Amino acid sequence: MKGALPCALYLSLLSSLAAQPLVPRLIEGQIVATALNSKFLDGNALDRLRNGQSVAFDFQLQLLDGPKTVARALERFVLSYDLWEESYSAVQLAQAAPRVPVYSTARLKADVLATWCMGRMKLNASHVDRQRPLTLQLEIRSVGAKIQNPLRPQGSVDLGVLVEIFSRPPDPQANRFTAQSQPFTLGSLATP
C-alpha cells in the first residue's frame, strides 16, 4: 500500500502536466487565448537557442466543436536568444511566400515569450453559434535544425504545409507543447 500513494501522486502530476490550461477571450468578434504555465522552451530547442542558433516554432490554435475543427490559426515564429542580455527575440513570419517578417520584438524574458506569440494569433468566431460548447486547443512544435522540406528554401512554409505538419506525428527530436481550455461558449466570453 505504501507504493500506491507515490504512484498515484506521480500519475496525477503527469496528467496535470500533459494538458496545460488555455484561457480563451473574445475581443471584437475574435477569439484570442492565453496559455497558463506555457513552458514550451526546453530540451533540444532551448539548447540550440542557448548555443546561438535561431529556432523556428510552429503554433497551431484550434477552436473545436467536439472533434470537429471550427476555426484554425497557424503561425510560425523564429526565436533567438541574446547571451549578453539573457533575453529572447521573436519574429513572426508571413504565411505566404516569401516568408518575410511581419512582426518582431526583442528583449523578452522566457515567461513573456509565449504570451507575445499567442497575442499574434486570432480566430474568427463570427460564424460560430454563441451557445455551442467549444474548446480551444494549442499545439506548439519546434522545427528541426534542418529544413523539413527541401523544395521550400529558407524554411518557408505555406498554410497547406503547416496543416500537413500538424497532421503527422511529432518528430521525437522536436519539442512539443500542448494546452487545452475547459469547455466554454462564446456567450459566456462576451462582455456585458
What structural category arises from helix and sheet content?
alpha+beta
- Give the helix tally: 5
Tally of domains: 1
Average predicted confidence as pLDDT: 79
Description:
24% of the residues lie in helices and 36% in strands. It is α+β, with helices and mostly antiparallel strands and 192 residues long. The chain is elongated and about 50 Å long.
Task: Write a short abstract of this structure.
A 9-stranded mixed sheet has the order 6-5-4-3-8-9-1-2-7, with helices on both faces.
Protein traits:
single chain, alpha+beta, disordered N terminus, 192 residues, elongated, nine-stranded mixed beta sheet
List the helices and strands and how they pair.
Blueprint: H1 4-18, E1 20-27, E2 30-35, H2 43-50, E3 55-65, E4 68-82, E5 87-93, E6 101-108, H3 110-119, E7 123-124, E8 135-142, H4 159-167, E9 176-180, H5 186-189
Parallel strand pairs: 1-9
Antiparallel strand pairs: 1-2, 2-7, 3-4, 3-8, 4-5, 5-6, 8-9
